[in-house]
Amino acid sequence: MTFEIDDRWVWDFWLARDEGDFHLFFLNAPRALGDPHLRHRNATIGHAVSTDLRTWSEPETVISPGAEEAFDGTATWTGSVIRDGSGWRMFYTGSRFLSEDSHANIESIGEATSIDLHRWSKAPGPLVTPDMRWYETLETGTWPEEAWRDPWVFRADDGWHMLITARARRPIGDDPRDTGVVGHAFSRDLRSWEVRPPLSAPGAGFAHIEVIQPFRLGSRDFILFCCDAAHLVGARVGQSGGIWVAPRDSQSGWCDVHMARRLTDETLYAGRIVTTPDERLALMAFENVLGDDFVGRISDPMYLVADHEGWPVLATDAGASSAPATRVEGASR
Length: 333
Prior knowledge:
It is a single chain. By secondary structure, the chain is an all-beta fold. Helices cover 0% and strands 47% of the residues. It has strands spanning 8-18, 21-30, 44-50, 60-63, 75-84, 87-97, 105-114, 121-122, 145-146, 148-156, 159-167, 180-187, 194-196, 210-217, 220-227, 242-247, 261-264, 268-275, 281-290, 293-298, 302-306, 312-314, 327-328. Strands 5, 6, 7, 8 and 9 form a five-stranded mixed beta sheet that branches. Strands 17-16-15-14-23 form a five-stranded antiparallel beta sheet, with no helix packed on it. Strand 7 and strand 8 (121-122) form a beta hairpin. It starts with 7 loop residues before the first strand and ends in a 5-residue tail after the last strand.
């Protein structure tokens, strides 16, 4: 069955695996708000547990906004969880709207720690903020928000890497909307972070590249991300939005977002790749819209396979290979 809470909307999420248990962390807000657009200013991070990705424990709240002046003073948004020794670290987005009647919003990245994935302690923040040499900020940009969110952290041979939803500083004359990029930060110890240049180029047709996750299918590396039709720009204007995949170079980390292909339409959003109990890769996503209505619940797993070119497709799509696939970067077990 899908994961849903009767009196709350549920949307972006991420998972951690601890032996046989899958720990789901998810954004949620009260349906009593009436307007689903208000959920973003009222988001907290919830938690539930499953052994099969289909039947879940009773949800609990694990991360809430901080004091009004804090970096997460309005809401707590999307993140990721990794194992750190005998404990766990969550990297999450803190959101602070500048006023109740303004869309101006500063996003930054914070962290929390836990020994059991249930009880979390937030560290003073923010942990990582954009570097104006490469990234647009509220003061320098043309966007109503300082986009710096959705951190996905994973380990590589040289240390820890964080992929971030960000917007590039645009050269004069470039399209001010077509600047969505894969932001990047690096750490050797998970405590001190160095912001580095983007791992993709602007001008790929995406005003933002949301909820990024690297994964390997067979012998090829990709990133998963999402962008809705309202934020498709340039040559992609008029196309349908949804969940996308793009090639990634495993050595340099470069993501060729110009080559991105759509995996699903906008009925699903903020997808995550997960390794199922039978050790296959699957897509989970939140159920986004049904007609004109926001749904706000999380799907069951849908198996991923490779098409004849080696690109990911859902197993139900015609012409797909039946080969299972291999790795999710940053998955904890």
